[in-house]
């Protein structure tokens, strides 16, 4: 690696929180033009946070669909819905959700949230899923 290339990489890293590899890739994509590499990284940075937010929201959505809200009376399950549907319902009709929850608890129904978590590879579950239920 030449001193000139290293200097350009250092300049990019001084201006952007990127690794040496990312700085080198930006320079390669712009044929070694430092200004063009800076512009390229600036554009990526502007799009980065919104992409991160969308990925986080998608992950939350998927996790919410795996988790369930159950209403039970004794051993009988009366209602079972994904947590995502429960949250959407609570946002769209908060008063109805509150009244329903209070009525269910007053009638001695149990409201459970059953969260399905991805098993860790080290758990010996061979990539399956495990359930963590709470009352």
Secondary structure layout:
Layout: H1 3-15, H2 20-29, H3 34-66, E1 68-73, E2 76-82, H4 83-92, H5 94-106, E3 110-118, E4 129-134
Helix pairs in contact: 1-2, 2-3, 4-5
CA-CA gap between termini: 61 Å
Helicity, as a percent range: 55-70%
Strand and helix order: HHHEEHHEE
Shape: rod-shaped
| Major sheet details | 4 strands, antiparallel
Count of all domains: 2
Number of strands: 4
Strand content: 15-25%
Q: Report the structural category.
A: alpha+beta
pLDDT < 50 stretches? 119-131
Backbone CA Rg: 25 Å
Strand arrangement, major sheet: 2-1-3-4
| Average pLDDT, all residues | 81
Give a written overview of the molecule.
- The protein has two domains: 3-55, Helicase, Ruva Protein, domain 3; 67-134, no CATH class.
- The protein has five helices and four strands.
- Mean pLDDT is 81; it is low at 119-131.
- It has a four-stranded antiparallel sheet.
- Helix 1 (3-15) crosses helix 2 (20-29) and helix 2 packs across helix 3.
- Helices cover 59% and strands 21% of the residues.
- With 135 residues, it is α+β, with helices and mostly antiparallel strands.
List keywords for this structure.
single chain, 135 residues, alpha+beta, Helicase, Ruva Protein, domain 3, 2 domains, 4 strands, 59% helix, rod-shaped
In short:
With about 140 residues, the chain is of the alpha+beta class. The protein has helices spanning about 5-15, 20-30, 35-65, 85-90, 95-105; strands at about 70-75, 75-80, 110-120, 130-135.
